[in-house]
Design goal:
alpha/beta; Arc Repressor Mutant, subunit A; Dna Topoisomerase Vi A Subunit, Chain: A, domain 2; 2 domains; 3-stranded antiparallel β-sheet; 45% helix; 17% strand; globular
């Protein structure tokens, strides 16, 4: 039986978010009341201020601070955009409504607040995260869902209109979208003893068809490529709250490696946030050494792939683990890459019957 989150802790978290937004507004008001141009200070997100922390095993921001001041004519527009974003986020949070990043961009027009394009709007939301220390998901702002989960986990919804309703995540054969309603749900019970995160939807579907969730007592997650932040946060919840080990399966190329590493150690782009990484998750393949051992069909690495491998070799997230360094060197040696689907050369179910069990048990290829 899973220990539920208390409703009071959920409410306390929401109140903390609202308080942080109101504090931002109060600070601006107080400065105006004192007859000074209001200024908003926030940690710098410049590359020079992003450092890798070996303790938390993720990127964090340093001590450098940047300011937005209404005194500076160049800062007036982003200053007002940030104030509007805080107001809009407060409205979403207090009314328990959700929005997408795209919807935020268009909603601004109803308030006669203009953004040049959605990227400018997205950047302001990131500024708001940096100022408050809370994520856009805490403000009920989400990207479009593209990841899903399938397996024996019963959740209890907490979103308005569905409070108390329960759902087992084997209920839909295509999996359940990892969206706002799911990520804010309570975990009721599960028989699963592991999580398998999968880069691509095709293999996720194959695993469901081949009953991997029952054969290996696993919760299956389709990352949809690079896992969105809410999916990475949800994977962390599964590991922390249910004490489930996490195994990550990607394509055998430098980009697949990095998809796994971002789940494990987070990204530089989210250095201003916490609780998005799962440090004890394991990248289980496809490794470069698997390409050789299983004699997989391959494509040659191109110049961009090779350049990326040299970048990864210098990245601190990859430097303290012999596995990562070994596989980077192997990729550079064979100069080949392979997709997860390459195992189909041995039959449609080979990846489930042979490769997956070997990887989960840490065994070499069967002779």
């Amino acid at each position: 039986m899973v220990q539920k989150k208390s409703k009071s802790s959920v409410a306390e978290r929401q109140q903390e978010v609202v308080n942080s937004l109101k504090k931002l507004g109060t600070d601006i008001y107080d400065q105006l009341d004192q007859g000074v141009f209001p200024t908003i200070n926030m940690p710098s997100r410049s590359t020079e201020n992003i450092n890798y922390d070996p303790v938390t095993r993720q990127y964090i921001l340093g001590e450098r601070v940047v300011s937005r001041s209404a005194r500076n004519i160049r800062h007036v527009k982003p200053f007002t955009q940030l104030a509007w974003a805080a107001m809009f986020s407060n409205e979403l949070t207090t009314k328990k409504k959700t929005s997408t990043l795209r919807d935020v961009y268009y909603s601004a027009q109803a308030y006669e607040m203009t953004f040049t394009d959605q990227q400018e709007s997205n950047n302001i939301i990131t500024d708001l995260e940096t100022v408050t220390g809370f994520s856009r998901e805490d403000f009920h702002i989400f990207p479009e869902e593209r990841s899903a989960i399938f397996g024996d986990l019963t959740i209890g919804y907490t979103v308005p209109g569905y409070e108390g309703k329960q759902l087992n995540l084997t209920s839909h054969p295509d999996g359940v979208l990892i969206g706002p309603a799911l990520t804010t749900s309570e975990f009721i019970n599960t028989k699963a003893n592991k999580v398998i995160a999968i880069e691509k939807g095709a293999l996720f579907t194959r695993f469901i068809e081949e009953n991997v969730h029952n054969k290996h007592n696993a919760l299956l997650i389709s990352c949809g490529g690079q896992a969105p932040r809410q999916t990475r946060s949800f994977i962390r919840r599964l590991q922390k709250e249910l004490n489930l080990p996490v195994y990550i399966f990607t394509d055998g190329d430098p980009w697949g490696m990095h998809i796994a590493q971002v789940i494990i150690s987070g990204s530089a782009n989210a250095a201003h946030l916490r609780d998005l990484n799962t440090p004890d998750a394991v990248w289980s393949g496809v490794w470069a050494s698997d390409i050789v051992e299983y004699k997989l069909p391959t494509d040659p690495l191109d110049e961009v792939d090779i350049k990326r491998l040299y970048e990864l070799a210098k990245d601190p997230r990859y430097q303290n683990d012999p596995l990562w360094q070994r596989e980077i060197k192997m990729f550079l040696k064979i100069k080949k890459k392979a997709e997860q689907e390459a195992f189909s050369r041995y039959g449609l179910t080979y990846i489930v019957d042979e490769y997956l069990p070997n990887k989960l048990e840490g065994k070499p290829k069967s002779s």
